[in-house]
Design a protein that fits this description.
Layout (H helix, E strand, L loop, with lengths): L3 H11 L4 H36 L4 H8 L2 H34 L5 H13 L2 H12 L6 H6 L8 H12 L1 H14 L2 H8 L4 H30 L2 H7 L9 H10 L3 H30 L1
């Protein structure tokens, strides 16, 4: 046996790569190159274009565009809407995921379908629904007007539209995770005398914390970048109901290209911060 090993080693050392291995290597590098080209064309090039156009006229113009009162108002409103919509959707997502995965009841599949609905419906249609419900000519419009309550063309309408398009993210992240974990740990906690809140905070939450944070990050990213639904309900009032995406559109339509790309670069910065935080969470979860 000892004499066979060197012979086998010498054969392996001098052997040529098989045609099948060569073909696999060729396919692998072809696919990698195609993927790289697609990413370069669809993601890297647009990002570089945004930064290039934003700084095209120099730092003075760039800083002036970002310090403009309308831009600052749009930034504040974007962050405010995200600060309201994301926590509310987080609470809803946790409750929905808990209900769907821990209990059996009639209509469970209907609830899952409703959670998926914003993924199937255009955001513009979602915004139009709120106009038809809360607008001046909508179902509750006359009553809201009599009470001097403004929802459409005001911050509450923007928050509602943002919540509509973002509320599936936390729930859809948690449902498969909680289904995989099952209910054994919760049932064991019940037998030991734990109450509902104790079970959630000490058993369920530690098991889902990374999935929950990941869902929150996705929800926040979509909330800050939402355009279609918000555009329908905002009214495009400068300094009042314009979020950053709407502010970018208005500047671009007014041929203020440098200011428009400067505002877009701010959105890009927020997206990159969100992405870095997501990657940090992913590495933290792996290790």
């Amino acid at each position: 046996m000892a004499g066979i090993v060197p012979a086998a080693a010498s054969v392996k050392k001098g052997a040529s790569v098989s045609p099948a291995a060569e073909e696999k290597r060729w396919v692998k590098w072809t696919l990698i190159s195609l993927a790289g080209l697609v990413l370069l064309w669809l993601i890297v090039l647009p990002l570089v274009t945004v930064l290039t156009e934003a700084l095209k006229k120099g730092w003075d113009v760039y800083i002036a565009a970002l310090s403009d009162p309308d831009a600052l108002s749009a930034l504040r409103l974007t962050l405010l809407v995200a600060a309201i919509a994301v926590p509310l959707n987080t609470i809803f997502g946790v409750i929905a995921a808990w209900t769907i995965t821990k209990f059996s009841f009639k209509g469970k599949q209907l609830l899952v379908t409703l959670i998926d609905l914003p993924f199937a419906v255009s955001p513009v249609i979602g915004g139009l629904i709120f106009v038809l419900v809360f607008g001046r000519q909508g179902w509750f419009g006359p009553w809201l007007a009599s009470q001097d309550i403004k929802i459409i063309f005001a911050v509450p309408g923007i928050v509602l539209a943002t919540m509509f398009v973002t509320f599936p993210f936390v729930a859809k992240e948690l449902i498969p995770l909680m289904e995989e974990q099952g209910t054994k740990e919760e049932e064991a906690a019940v037998t030991l005398g734990a109450k509902g809140w104790q079970i959630f905070t000490r058993v369920t939450l530690p098991n889902i914390k990374w999935g929950l944070l990941y869902g929150i990050i996705l929800c926040n990213a979509r909330a800050m970048g939402e355009f279609g639904a918000v555009s329908v309900v905002s009214g495009h009032i400068r300094g009042e109901t314009n979020t950053l995406p709407l502010h970018v559109e208005i500047l671009y339509n007014e041929y203020q290209f440098s200011a428009s790309f400067a505002a877009a670069s701010l959105l890009l910065l927020l997206a990159l911060i969100t992405l870095l935080f997501k990657n940090w969470l992913t590495r933290k979860n792996v290790h």
